[in-house]
Amino acid sequence: MVTLLLALSTALGLVVGSFSNVVIHRLPRRESVVFPGSRCPRCGTAIRWYHNVPLLSWIALRGRCASCRAPISPRYPLVEATCGGLFLACALRWEISWATPVAWVFCTMVLCLALIDLEHHLLHDVLTYPGIALGIAASFVAPWTRPVDSLAGAALGAAVPALLIGLYALRGVEAMGWGDVKFMAMAGAFLGWRGALLTLVGGSLIGILLGGGWLLFSRRGRATPLPFGTFLGMAALLALFFGEAAWGWYLGLFPKGGAP
Ligand SMILES: [Zn+2]
């Protein structure tokens, strides 16, 4: 029974991942995510349902279009597998409770936003605004936060990057975008103020490691724009799964009564 539920969770994640691929590809291009159905970008042949099974079709067709054999990016099965893995991890962690669907929604929003930001350096309002509302609504049932905590998280999440944008603007530097402010408001609404703080700290560390490493490796200038939303997204998912453990560890560093 448990195995069946875990298998169904993974299958649902693969299907949601498949739809996320459509969102990630079409939203920045201002195309409808519903209509028309998927087509091969080279020969224009409509993709049949049995060639559109998440993960399996790509493997069966060996990463090529069924009619013209044009290569299909491995990005598609990778996004599907990631989403399936995240859905499975949520089901394993929170089992049959409200927390599981809440975590599924959050993972899907973060995955779409982070991957669009990676390619286009954009965090879409179409996703972040509803995300903030969903996060606040979810705080009524999510076990790791409460409505007041959710509002505090949204406020803190938005305030820190907004402050940084303001401070850097005084020096004429564009540190982050307003998309990051809205993304962080969403992450804070879902994760609460502790989660927002962990996401900001974690995102900065990941940015220094990955972003800084990439700038060094590719020998680009320091002014090269980095997808900060992607780093924040990775940190937000880590905060979702390991936030409580990280917070407990942090508080354990202080002697009794010395913790905030
Ligand atoms: Zn084709």
Instruction: Report the mean per-residue pLDDT as an integer.
Output: 91
What is the strand content? under 5%
How would a textbook summarize the main sheet? none
* Poorly predicted parts: none
Number of helices: 8
- Taken from the alpha-carbon principal axes, the silhouette is globular
Distance between the termini: 43 Å
Tell me the number of structural domains: 2
Structure classification? mainly alpha
**Helix-strand sequence:** HHHHHHHH
Can you walk me through this structure?
With 260 residues, this protein is mainly alpha-helical. The protein folds into two domains: 1-88; 97-260, no CATH class. Helices cover 68% and strands 0% of the residues. It has helices at residues 2-26, 56-60, 75-94, 99-120, 125-138, 147-170, 178-218, 228-252. Helix 1 packs parallel to helix 4 (99-120), helix 3 runs antiparallel to helix 4 and helix 7 crosses helix 8. The protein is globular. It starts with a helix and ends in an 8-residue tail after the last helix. The structure holds zinc ion.
Task: Draw up the topology in text.
Blueprint: H1 2-26, H2 56-60, H3 75-94, H4 99-120, H5 125-138, H6 147-170, H7 178-218, H8 228-252
Helix pairs in contact: 1-3, 1-4, 3-4, 4-5, 4-8, 5-6, 5-7, 6-7, 7-8
Bound molecules: zinc ion (ZN).
Residues 40, 42-43, 45, 65, 67-68, 70 line the site of zinc ion.
